[in-house]
Amino acid sequence: MINFILNASIVLLIVFLVTYFAYCFGLFFVFKKINARPWFAFVPILNFHELVMATGLPNRWFLYCLLPYAGGIYSIAVADRLGRMFGKRFAFSAFWLTIGSPIGMNILGFNKRTPDFSIKKEPKPDLNELKYRLNRLKSKKA
User: Fold this and answer.
1) Phi, psi angle pair for 18, to nearest 5°
2) Mean pLDDT of successive 10-residue segments in the chain (142 residues)?
């Protein structure tokens, strides 16, 4: 029984590490495209802080993203802004840049499209609009 638990733990650790490095690898190329420091992609908390700064959002949004429950909404707002920089729609950003980020970051990183930096100058997103868009997206699936 102990050998089974040990082997399962090792397999889960390997899956976690492969997933994390896939995310970091894609984020590295995204950072290169948006003129951020690419080596920050491999530092666990600093990479998300750099992502918030690179999308033109305030410093405090990084702290809000760390809060339970509310952090999910702020993280989706950051992902939405990053996706819009690369011409992606909200549905892509809400799924592939949050839950499926190891794949989504690689899609953005190896995309031929150059980012639109004018989005960084837009005012910060209205959270009520974001909630409306999330609810609309849920109602389309139902």
Assistant:
1) -65, -40
2) 86 95 95 92 92 89 87 88 92 91 93 87 75 78 64
43-68 burial code (b ≥16 CB/10 A, e <16)? eeeebbbbbbbbbbbeeebbebbeee
* pTM of the complete model: 0.80
- Residues 15 and 7: their CA atoms lie apart, in Å, by 12
Interhelix angle 101-109/2-33, rounded to 10 degrees, is 30
Looking up tokens 């029984």 gives 1
pLDDT of residue 141: 67
Pairwise CA distance, residues 87 & 116, whole Å: 8
